[in-house]
Write a structure and sequence with these properties.
The chain has about 425 residues and is of the alpha/beta class. The protein contains 14 helices and ten strands. Strands 1, 2, 3, 4, 5, 6, 7, 8, 9 and 10 form a ten-stranded mixed beta sheet that branches.
């Protein structure tokens, strides 16, 4: 498909700043003792600063200071993606915004679409801008998998359903499939599509290699705002090889499985935020436009093979943007598991060099509610650095979905 030239609309949702915290290993990393509200506050504060990479004393930066890209009071709404925090997170995240010098006049909501929550938060703000409901907003995501361990979720908050009704409904198989652990869905994908364990280990090792190279070249510096003294991702293992990964035992099917701790995404703490506004507002304020939100799609798939979601979401998003897969310069596809990421890339026949050029969640980590926003941050920084025009962010979603968004950097024309 030939790339079309999109007309510039004053109500286009454009991104003028995108930032993330470091991504650190849950329970063992540099952010393990930092509550999610503090992670979120750092990202919200950072995305409003002209120089997010520099530490700013919270008391020394006045909301009217020239250090801000725009006055915090100009932000009309914030949407925060999160998965594991308790229901009171709606309170703590509102407090996080206030502690980031954003006044009470700025509203805030939370959203949970599992692993795509951060991307959904950005979509919610983008769509509010496109519809004219607001002109300026922040889409963000946060997760502390140290504070809220994933394995405790169902123990603390079991699904509240009428089991007799669910088990006897027309879609009972899919309904009960929503309870399947994510690692088991990974094994289901491996078995159904006959994926080779060695290929998955090679894929995982390549993720670490790319991320280690990007880190050594300083590529991540521009996208990270520090949290206290922590300013560097700590989950990347430069010495990882397919050979060392091959020695790890399967976790979810110990006899015949292919999913291991080494070829799965890491449990991680982190936050990310994206500042959006209408094109009209960005032009009026003379702010550089990093990227334009062009389309968003969510598609449902069988819950027991939820990892295949991007296979359906990406074509849907591309169709809405009126471009083809070959037009896309960079794909950021979440590596929840090597099995599903490898399968999606292979099935969509994507050029490997275009996918996750700086590594993915196997190396960087997958803080559930943060990931979608983090991927937008990484994508836009890479596109601007390399002079690329079209980018896609996509991920699978627990309970059986895939989400994808298309973004355009306008200064590049093919």
């Amino acid at each position: 498909m030939t790339t079309t030239t999109n007309l510039q609309n004053p109500r286009d949702a454009v991104i003028v700043q995108a930032i993330r915290t470091p991504l650190c290993r849950a329970r063992k990393g540099g952010l393990a003792k930092v509550p999610p509200s503090t992670l979120l506050s750092a990202a919200l504060r950072g995305v409003l600063l002209k120089d997010p990479q520099t530490r700013h004393d919270q008391d020394a930066t006045d909301p009217a200071s020239s250090a801000y890209l725009i006055p915090p009071s100009d932000v009309q709404d914030i949407c925060v993606g999160n998965v594991l925090s308790p229901p009171t997170s709606a309170v703590s995240f509102r407090m996080a915004a206030l502690s980031a010098d954003i006044p009470h006049t700025t509203s805030l909501s939370t959203t949970n679409r599992q692993c795509s929550s951060g991307l959904q938060a950005i979509a919610n703000i983008a769509h509010a801008i496109q519809s004219g409901s607001i002109s300026i907003g922040i889409g963000a995501g946060v997760e502390s998998m140290s504070s809220d361990p994933m394995h405790e979720l169902y123990d603390k908050f079991p699904p509240q359903v009428d089991w007799e009704v669910v088990q006897n409904c027309r879609h009972s198989r899919d309904a009960m499939g929503c309870l399947i652990p994510m690692g088991v869905t990974s094994e289901n994908v491996s078995k159904k599509y006959r994926l080779d364990r060695s290929a998955l280990d090679r894929f995982a090792a390549e993720s670490h290699r790319k991320a280690a190279r990007a880190q050594s070249l300083g590529k991540f510096r521009a996208e990270i705002t520090p949290v206290g003294d922590v300013s560097r991702d700590d989950g990347i293992r430069p010495d990882t090889t397919a050979e060392t990964l091959s020695k790890l035992k399967p976790v979810f099917d110990k006899a015949e499985g292919s999913t291991t701790a080494g070829n799965s995404s890491q449990l991680t703490d982190g936050a990310a935020a994206v500042l959006l506004m209408s094109r009209e507002e960005a032009v009026k304020r003379k702010l550089p436009i990093w990227g334009v939100w062009r389309s968003y799609a969510v598609e449902g798939v069988p819950p027991d093979i939820m990892g295949v979601g991007p296979v359906y979401a990406i074509p849907s998003a591309l169709q809405k943007a009126k471009i083809g897969a070959k037009d896309v310069d960079i794909f950021e596809i979440n590596e929840a598991f090597a099995s599903q990421a490898y399968y999606c890339i292979r099935t969509l026949k994507l050029e490997e060099g275009k996918v996750n050029p700086n590594g993915g969640a196997i190396a960087l980590g997958h803080p559930l509610g943060c990931t979608g926003a983090r991927m937008v941050v990484t994508l836009l920084n890479e596109m601007r650095r390399e002079g690329k025009r079209w980018g896609v962010v996509s991920m699978c979603v627990g309970t059986g979905m895939g989400a994808a968004a298309v973004l355009e950097v306008e200064c590049v024309r093919s």
